[in-house]
Amino acid sequence: MAVELQISMMYAGLLTLLYFALSVAVIRLRWRDRVGIGTGDSKDLEVATRIHANFAEYVPLMLLLLVLMELSGAPVMLLHAMGGLLFVARICHALGLRMSIGPSWARTVGVLGTFIVLLLQAGYLLGYAFGMAV
User: Fold this and answer.
1) Inter-residue long-range contacts of 39-44, CB under 8 Å, 24+ positions, other chains counted
2) How confident is the model at residue 3 (pLDDT cuts 50, 70, 90)?
3) pTM for the whole structure
């Protein structure tokens, strides 16, 4: 009997495409600025690598949490809300940092969206673990 994780797989695929785009942005800047390791003196490359690294720091855990929620039988709408908000938040975070290394509306939306999803996922899974899930 196969376990179907269609919702988690869809968001994993979308987030993988976004990760690929962020990776290509770093590679292009490395070629442009002729920097093999680190960021050299390139502020653009420094920003791009932080966008890429921040994604890599948060998204794998959050995808795992989404899979666990789906395996636990979380409502479809909740799964789409979590996956959709995460996807939008990560796009906003990347755009916000490209707009300005300081505060920006897009970066704020990205950070808040990411943290909201992370906390809701933790809350749902703790509730499920202790028999209080929706």
Assistant:
1) 43/101
2) confident
3) 0.92
